[in-house]
Specification:
The chain contains 14 helices and 16 strands. The protein is of the alpha/beta class. It has a domain of 258 residues: Alpha-Beta Barrel (TIM Barrel). Strands 1, 2, 3, 4, 5, 6, 14, 15 and 16 form a nine-stranded mixed beta sheet that branches. The chain has a seven-stranded parallel beta sheet with strand order 7-8-9-10-11-12-13. Strand 15 and strand 16 form a beta hairpin. Helix 11 packs antiparallel against helix 12. This is Dihydroorotase. It comes from Desulfosarcina widdelii.
Length: 424
């Protein structure tokens, strides 16, 4: 199958040049979930009018049974139709078993390079927009634009890396000392692409932070973020730097990602208590993001945070090559794990749809007269085991499965990968 062969070649090429290639390959489970893609997946249908009949529509934070009419990507009617379809020439979709929400956004993922392709981050996965979180810097951004943004089926927003070449395997393991950044180049790109570049991203942890000044690159990025009034997304990994270092330089609207990772550097401290500085930062307008990935989400940290009513966050996959094979797998899978943690369907839905849409200043609510991409999904009942990145398991009786997306007036069948991985 071409996709799997290509992905495996890219995976081997990416990790093959690093000293950690062997453990990556050993743990990645490269053969799991492989199988033929459904011919229905990703099929795009264009029709001027859709009538989504009798679905549960996400309106003002809750689901209500309603018919929804979409004309050329514009919401034109919300309500119950009596008798027939009530809309001339409408393509009718029976949504009586489905839920309809503002289009999902993966607020932290990686496209190309160390990342994955559109077939794992596009509308066939239920995703209607994404944030490319720092894979590209000033030296590599133009190539990214030419390869991906010009051909994207969905909006792709970027949090630009001030590091010259962004995130690559080789620079994850080398110190981020002065000279690796290109602030002038980042300024130029911000001016050239204001509709695409929505923020800045910095990735620092114990593997690549310089001993003499661990937060050096973060400080450079924070200053540029203040200058250009752009949010900065800070990556939490093994310290140093620590979450305390990042919070000291953060401004309202900045984002701490991997917020529920293990307690040596998360919103929860080593004693299992909420960090006071994280609670204070939340009150001051600092934002938080899950960024599940391959090693950045633990159930215990999340549960302890929820016990302190720490509930303001976005749910994102941090999907790149490794978590595309294990751990994250899909955005719907990551979102479903929060059922096991006790969140309601409404709480999960807002964190992958309305909330990230608001942060990106795009239309966030389903309203008459407004343009809106939509995700149509179902809830599967069964016994599902969810595992965090520390290997801890929780069992839950529900799972989110994408069914369709409507993007720019196009209807796309979705969810084949989730059904193949988790329902077979």
């Amino acid at each position: 199958m071409p996709y799997l062969k290509t992905s495996r070649r890219r995976f081997l090429k990416t990790v093959g040049n690093s000293a950690v290639a062997f453990p990556f390959l050993l743990n990645a489970g490269l053969l799991s979930g492989c199988g033929k893609r459904s011919s229905r997946t990703g099929v795009m249908v264009r029709h001027p009018v859709y009538l989504l009949k009798n679905g549960s529509v996400f309106l003002n934070g809750s689901f209500e049974k309603a018919d929804l009419v979409v004309e050329n990507g514009l919401i034109t009617k919300i309500g119950k139709e009596k008798g027939g379809s009530g809309v001339a020439d409408a393509k009718v979709i029976d949504c009586s078993r489905f839920f309809i929400s503002p289009g999902w956004i993966d607020f932290h993922c990686h496209l190309g390079g160390i990342g994955v392709d559109f077939d794992l981050l596009g509308p066939e996965m239920g995703i209607t927009a994404m944030v490319e979180a720092g894979t590209y810097g000033p030296e590599t951004f133009d190539a990214f634009m030419n390869r991906f943004c010009k051909h994207a089926k969905i909006p792709v927003y970027v949090f630009l890396n001030v590091r010259k070449n962004g995130i690559q395997i080789k620079n994850i393991f080398f110190k981020s000392k002065p000279g690796i950044e290109d602030v002038d180049g980042a300024r130029r790109l911000i001016d050239q692409h204001p509709d695409v570049i929505k923020g800045l991203k910095v990735r620092l942890d114990s593997m690549n932070a310089p001993d003499e000044n661990p937060a050096y690159l973060a400080d450079v990025t924070a200053k540029l973020g203040r200058e250009r009034q752009l949010p900065v997304m800070y990556h939490l990994g093994n310290p140093k730097p620590s979450i305390t270092d990042f919070l000291k330089m953060s401004k309202p609207g900045d984002i701490i990602t991997h917020c529920f990772r293990k307690s040596n550097n998360s919103v929860v401290d080593a004693s299992g208590n909420m960090r006071g500085e994280a609670l204070h930062a939340k009150a001051e307008g600092i934002l938080f993001d899950v960024g599940h990935g391959v090693g950045s989400f633990e159930f215990d940290s999340a549960k302890r945070a929820f016990d302190r009513d720490f509930m303001d966050f976005t749910i994102s996959s941090d999907l790149w090559l490794l978590p595309s094979w294990f751990k994250s797998r899909t955005l719907a899978n990551v979102a479903s794990k929060f059922f096991a943690l006790g969140l309601s369907l409404e709480e999960v839905t807002s964190r992958i749809s309305s909330r990230p849409r608001r942060l990106l200043t795009v239309e966030s609510e389903i309203q008459i007269g407004r343009p809106m991409d939509l995700t149509i999904f179902s809830i599967a009942d069964g016994t599902f085991e969810y595992v965090d990145t520390g290997g801890h398991a929780l069992t839950c009786g529900r799972r989110i499965l994408p069914e369709y997306t409507i993007v720019g007036g196009n209807l796309i069948r979705a969810g084949d990968r989730d059904r193949r991985l988790f329902m077979s």
